[in-house]
């Protein structure tokens, strides 16, 4: 029987790299460790257990693990109870080798071993042996209960894990295993439990959400419809969808349940050139991608689109890069997440010989981002003076923290900052008039001040912010990284 007091009330600190999947995994790890009496803390100095939840998608991931773990060496010499582990994609990729290369580590656990974490940690305290668990459980059904300590207004719900697509640049099939979906029944029960705890918005998460397939044959469109129709959740988001699996039925269901399914679709293109897309093994051409964009915009007018793009993929010529540039001008995305190609272990593209020089990748990236900046500023003007329903999240965070401003989100995933917030407004959806708009960020005021004053006396009184409004969003821990 597992000792329920492994943590003895001591601190656990987790540093998280990478995508929303990892952010969600960290929350699961903390929930599991709390159950065996660890207390989450906000700095490694306060902890007796430190976990690095690693990511392989970005550059030099193993190096990042080495350098962070190295910082803890002296702490470990002073505190014999301190245990240090690595989870996430680098752990899955490197397995026992990581323990050999980074001697300060006590344990390594892969992406399918998160639920074993309390047992693994217990073993590191019981013996002197280092511990590794990094096997994929590809044959087992994927069944987990969403564990969130303080879900707040909005939370993530994993619907599937792994990926079978093998895009030639992507390490995910090697670090997250084969694609497996949770059952429809389990997901509905999870979402009902979250709404009972006050959650208003869920983001359905998966490496490739729209290839979701439940044991009863339900596809992603059916899942969305069931969540929208049979639960009382107010808003549904999802990420990330693959263009090749985006079909008319998904558009029709999104349009039918538009009051719940948000007007925001992240549709990773990766390139605007058909030959590059073929070398990436993406499963669509430029023309087919553009046809999907048209299908989505015809079916859901006003929906906003964002995308992921890679510049300098091996063999990408100037002309082929220009096709990516012309793609963003043609589609006019609200936002793009653009990256220079960098080789990842195990992937086919890492072995392609015609790698693009670094300075050329940098030039292409700068040009792409500058072009997108102009597009985003032009698109932002459309919001000026408009009225939008905003789901209130709480006091402002990031660059506007401690300013006296509050924040909420529109269906388009734009953050609206405003003055006059109240704790009782958290979780309410309130109409706002937009005073000033920037890409991704809006400054707003209550649209119906009389109604607000009647419900929340004093909320509309003039307030001077503690510092000026910052129109640049704080980086979200690399959270929207190219995965699909
Ligand atoms: S980019 Fe997305 S679809 Fe392609 S292999 Fe990676 S996770 Fe799968």
Question: Could you name the key traits of this structure?
Answer:
single chain, 484 residues, alpha/beta, Rossmann fold, pyruvate-formate lyase- activating enzyme, OB fold (Dihydrolipoamide Acetyltransferase, E2P), 3 domains, six-stranded parallel sheet, five-stranded mixed beta barrel, 15 helices, 20% strand, globular, binds iron/sulfur cluster
Q: Care to describe what's here?
A:
The protein has 484 residues and is an alpha/beta fold. The chain is built from 15 helices and 19 strands. Helix 9 (220-230) runs parallel beside helix 10 and helix 13 (318-331) packs parallel to helix 14. Iron/sulfur cluster binds at residues 163, 165-167, 170, 172-173, 207-208, 242, 483-484.
Low-confidence region ranges = 475-484
Structural class by sheet pairing and helices: alpha/beta
Rg estimate, integer Å: 23 Å
> Biggest β-sheet, characterized?
6 strands, parallel
Strand order of the largest sheet: 2-1-3-4-5-6
The proportion of strand residues reads 15-25%
Ions, cofactors and other ligands present here are: iron/sulfur cluster
The CATH topology label of the largest domain is pyruvate-formate lyase- activating enzyme
Distance separating the two termini: 41 Å
**What's the overall geometry?**
globular
Report the CATH superfamily of the largest domain: tm_1862 like domain
């Amino acid at each position: 029987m597992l000792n329920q007091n492994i943590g003895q009330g001591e601190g656990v600190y987790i540093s998280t790299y990478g995508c929303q999947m990892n952010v969600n995994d960290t929350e699961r790890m903390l929930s599991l460790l709390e159950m065996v009496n660890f207390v989450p803390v906000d700095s490694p100095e306060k902890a007796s257990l430190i976990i690095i939840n690693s990511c392989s998608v970005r550059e030099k991931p193993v190096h990042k693990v080495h350098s962070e773990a190295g910082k803890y060496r002296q702490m470990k010499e002073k505190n014999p109870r301190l245990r240090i582990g690595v989870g996430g994609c680098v752990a899955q990729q490197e397995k026992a080798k990581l323990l050999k290369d980074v001697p300060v580590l006590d344990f390594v656990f892969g992406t399918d071993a998160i639920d074993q974490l309390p047992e693994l940690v217990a073993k590191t305290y019981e013996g002197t042996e280092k511990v590794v668990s990094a096997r994929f459980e590809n044959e087992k059904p994927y069944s987990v209960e969403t564990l969130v300590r303080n879900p707040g207004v909005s939370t993530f719900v994993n619907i599937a894990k792994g990926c079978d697509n093998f895009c030639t640049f992507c390490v995910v099939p090697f670090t997250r295993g084969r694609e497996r979906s949770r059952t429809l029944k389990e997901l509905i029960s999870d979402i009902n439990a979250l709404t009972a705890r006050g959650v208003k918005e869920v983001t359905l998460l998966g490496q490739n959400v729209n290839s979701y397939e439940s044991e009863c044959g339900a596809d992603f469109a059916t899942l969305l419809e069931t969540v929208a129709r049979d639960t009382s959740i107010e808003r549904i988001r999802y990420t990330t969808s693959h263009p090749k699996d985006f079909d008319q039925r998904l558009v029709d269901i999104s349009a039918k349940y538009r009051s719940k399914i948000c007007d925001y679709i992240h549709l990773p293109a990766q390139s605007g050139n058909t030959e590059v897309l073929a070398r990436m093994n993406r499963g669509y051409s430029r023309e087919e991608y553009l046809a999907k964009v048209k299908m989505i915009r015809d079916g859901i007018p006003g929906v906003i689109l964002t995308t992921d793009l890679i510049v300098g993929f091996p063999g990408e010529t100037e002309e082929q890069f220009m096709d990516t540039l012309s793609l963003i001008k043609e589609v006019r995305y609200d936002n793009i997440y653009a990256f220079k190609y960098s080789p990842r272990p195990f992937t086919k593209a890492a072995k392609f010989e015609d790698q693009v020089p670094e300075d050329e990748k940098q030039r292409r990236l700068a040009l792409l981002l500058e072009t997108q900046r102009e597009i985003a500023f032009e698109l932002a003007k459309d919001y000026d003076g408009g009225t939008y329903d905003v789901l209130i999240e709480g006091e402002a965070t990031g660059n506007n923290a401690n300013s006296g401003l509050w924040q909420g989100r529109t269906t388009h995933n734009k953050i609206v900052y405003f003055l006059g917030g109240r704790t009782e407004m958290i979780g309410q959806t309130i109409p706002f008039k937009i005073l000033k708009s920037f890409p991704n960020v809006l400054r707003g005021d209550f649209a119906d001040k009389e109604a607000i004053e009647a419900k929340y006396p004093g909320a509309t009184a003039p307030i001077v912010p503690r510092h000026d409004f910052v129109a640049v969003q704080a980086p979200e821990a690399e959270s929207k990284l190219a995965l699909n």
